[in-house]
Structures are given as structure tokens and as C-alpha cells.
Amino acid sequence: MHENTNSPDQTDTTTSTExxxxxxxxxxxVPSTSADGSAPAVEPSAPVRFDTKVVVVLRDDLKAWQExxxxxxxxxxxxxxxxxxxxxxxxxxxxxxxxxxxxQPVMVMTANADKLxxxxxxxxxRGIPTAIYTEELFSTxxxxxNRAAVAGVPAEELNLVGxxxxxxxxxxxxxxxxxxMHA
Length: 183
Prior knowledge:
5 helices, 26% strand
């Protein structure tokens, strides 16, 4: 489990371009051995601090399956946006390898359609990398059709059901202000 040591009162003087261009994770790790002594384990030796924040904001009227689907697709965009975002493969004590995951916590929030549009507009204006999911994508069947569905709609008319952002903590906090934590 990741420990989120970010607090809302921390200041961030890094520009969004600098934060995205640099590896935004600071980790100190010390090799150790698993409880049964059979496999090496890696444990953080100090709290992990992140210069960036990852937030997914979902429209507040989605069905549960839609929330999960949208979150998964949006996070695929975030995870592939920078080489340093994904950690190492996981390995259990029996030597089975598992896929790596994002290295930092993800906050999931909800908002109404108007707030989602505002979040997208503000994020784009601040240069914060943004992934979007529109309602039309629920009825498309493949990646090219998804891109075509978005390409045919002006930005201010996108029927957003979710957005995901990764950028400097303070900038992301300002952009998503007014959204609620997902319950």
C-alpha cells in the first residue's frame, strides 16, 4: 500500500512542464528478506513524497460498471504518460511475477457534468496532462472508433463522463476544487 504523505498546505513551485518532465517520485528503498527468508523484499526506508498528484473525476450519475470502466481506461492514459510513473514488477514468495502498477496514490472523485467541463477547461489552460472519457465511448467497440468519437466534437461540447489528471499537487488541487471524494 502506498503512503500518501501529501498535505494540502504544502506548496509547489515547480511548473507543470518541469513536474511532468522529471521523475516525480522520491523513494528510498532498502533490500530485506521476506518473512520466510526465501525471497528478497524491498521496503521503503522513508516516507514517499510525490511532487505530483493523480486524480480521476467521474460524473456523479454513472452506474457502478461505468465508473469502473471509465476509471480503468483513464488510468491507462495516466500510467502511459511518463516512463517513471510505473514501478517494478511484483513477485510473490513462490517466484510468480505480476505486472507493475502506478507508483503513487490515485484519488477518485465525483462531480456533475458542468464541473467536469470546468475541470477539463482549467486543466488544459494550466497545461496539466489530462485524459478524457466521453459518454459516446460506451457505445464504440475499438480504439480507432473511440478517437473518432472524440475528434468529431468541439472541446467545449464534449459529453464528459470522466477526466484524469496528473500534475503538480497544488495545480491539480485548484483544478478539481469543488469535486467530492468518491463514496
